[in-house]
């Protein structure tokens, strides 16, 4: 998204806002849903690990 927004010179803050809005609206809802699901998994692992190491909890081979 960043590459697309800044692909051409930006001449004003309003133009920047419009480009960001345009690109945001192009994002597929399924991609957003997967990102939220992954974020929830990371948050739950952080809570379970009580702030400690959690990588082993995130990348285990057990199905979700």
What order do the helices and strands come in, and which of them pair?
Blueprint: H1 2-5, H2 13-26, H3 29-48, H4 55-58
How would you explain this protein's 3D organization?
The protein is mostly helical and 64 residues long. The protein has one domain (2-58). Helices cover 66% and strands 0% of the residues. It is built from four helices and no strands. It has helices at 2-5, 13-26, 29-48, 55-58. The longest helix is centred in the middle third of the chain and has 20 residues, at 29-48. The radius of gyration is 18 Å and the shape is elongated. It starts with a helix and ends in a 6-residue tail after the last helix. The model has no long low-confidence stretch (mean pLDDT 85).
Radius of gyration: 18 Å
- Percent of residues in helices comes to 55-70%
Helix-strand topology string: HHHH
Strand content: under 5%
- Main sheet: strands, sense, barrel: none
The number of domains: 1
Short description:
This protein is an all-alpha fold and 64 residues long. It is built from 4 helices and no strands.
Keywords:
elongated; single chain; 0% strand; 64 residues; mainly alpha; 4 helices
């Amino acid at each position: 998204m960043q590459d697309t927004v800044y692909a051409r010179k930006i001449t004003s803050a309003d133009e920047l806002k419009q480009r960001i809005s345009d690109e945001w609206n192009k994002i597929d809802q399924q991609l957003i849903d997967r990102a939220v699901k992954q974020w929830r998994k990371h948050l739950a692992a952080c809570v379970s690990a009580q702030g400690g190491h959690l990588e082993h909890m995130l990348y285990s081979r057990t199905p979700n």
